[in-house]
Specification:
- The protein is an all-alpha fold.
- It contains 10 helices and no strands.
- It has a domain at 58-195: Orthogonal Bundle (Tetracycline Repressor, domain 2), CATH 1.10.357.
- The longest helix has 36 residues, at 108-143.
């Protein structure tokens, strides 16, 4: 295999360095020089890929969501009933984010306090994309006579909203320290909201 194929693309190397430095230094203390040194590239190379430090860190968040969307699509086409798949997807949207920021959860509050306006603009796009994948599985459940969802898009968005309180941006550092408790809460929320969507057999009485 040619050596060039073994080298990670520069943009990805910079984003990997960003994740590591968030854990070690936090957002405020990390400089472009730090990122360049950690990624093994020149300072000017960082600017070829990202116009500002803020954009680098926002793109790091984008990458987490892109990976999550790929996982949600994989679960959407996996085995099981639509309700089973929706449950796994709701748990995944919480726990994937949790696991992705675990290494730097201590600096997450600092990061979001600085980037919150820009992050909130992006967050709406994230949630719409996730709801779109959920809506596809909801539609399968409706066609199969398993689920009751008159408005697929609104219902999918409600499923996203129901679990938003458990994603890392909404949790304190102390809460982020306990994956087990977050998983248990996410499972309870998923079970509760899906119970309301299940069609129940009509009584003949």
């Amino acid at each position: 295999m040619p050596e060039a194929t073994l080298i990670k693309p520069t943009r990805e190397a910079i984003l990997d360095a960003t994740d590591r430095l968030l854990g070690r230094l936090g957002y405020q203390k990390t400089t472009i020089d730090d990122l360049a040194r950690e990624a093994g590239v020149a300072r000017r190379t960082v600017y070829l890929h990202f116009p500002t430090k803020e954009e680098i860190f926002l793109c790091s968040i984008d990458r987490v969501v892109d990976r999550l969307l790929a996982k949600l699509k994989e679960l959407a086409s996996s085995g099981g009933t639509p309700a089973d798949r929706l449950r796994r997807m709701l748990l995944e949207r919480v726990l994937f984010r949790f696991d992705s920021v675990r290494a730097y959860h201590g600096s997450l509050d600092e990061l979001l306090s600085v980037l919150r306006p820009a992050y909130l603009r992006r967050r709406e796009r994230y949630f719409r994309a996730e709801a779109e994948v959920l809506a596809g599985v909801l539609a399968e459940g409706v066609r199969a006579g398993e689920l009751d969802a008159a408005d697929l898009q609104s219902t999918a968005r409600a499923l996203v909203t129901a679990t938003n309180a458990l994603i890392p941006a909404s949790l304190s550092v102390a809460e982020l320290g306990s994956r087990e408790s977050v998983e248990q809460e996410a499972a309870r929320v998923a079970d509760l909201v899906l119970r309301g969507l299940l069609l129940r057999p009509r009584s003949n009485a």
